[in-house]
Amino acid sequence: MKNLFLTLTATAPISLLAQSKNFMYSEGKIYVVIAVIAVIFLGLAGYLYRMDRKISALENEK
């Protein structure tokens, strides 16, 4: 009985994880996640580009 309980509790998170992946696809929320990641990436890329230009300008002044 104890082994059965341990087996069921060990496999339950795996099945929940599989359902959550399907949930993101079925509800269309995966596109929201991708859009948020893209916006963050573009923001960081823009920030780094702007910083590089500022640093280059400071280096050229000296």
Structure summarized in a few sentences:
The chain is mainly α and 62 residues long. It has two helices and no strands. The protein has helices spanning 2-26, 30-61.
Can you tell me about this structure?
By secondary structure, the protein is mainly α. Helix content is about 90%, strand content about 0%. The chain has one domain. The longest helix has about 30 residues. It is elongated. The relative contact order is 0.06.
Task: Determine the structural class based on helices, strands and strand pairing.
Answer: mainly alpha
Radius of gyration, in Å, reads 24 Å
State the low-pLDDT regions, or none.
none
Largest sheet: none
Question: H/E series, N to C?
Answer: HH
Number of helical stretches of at least 4 residues: 2
Give the CA-CA distance, first to last residue. 78 Å
What is the domain tally? 1
Large-scale geometry: elongated
Strand percentage lies at: under 5%
Let me know the average pLDDT: 78
**Multimeric state:** single chain
Helix content: over 70%
Question: Keyphrases for this structure?
Answer:
0% strand, mainly alpha, single chain, 2 helices, 92% helix, 62 residues, elongated
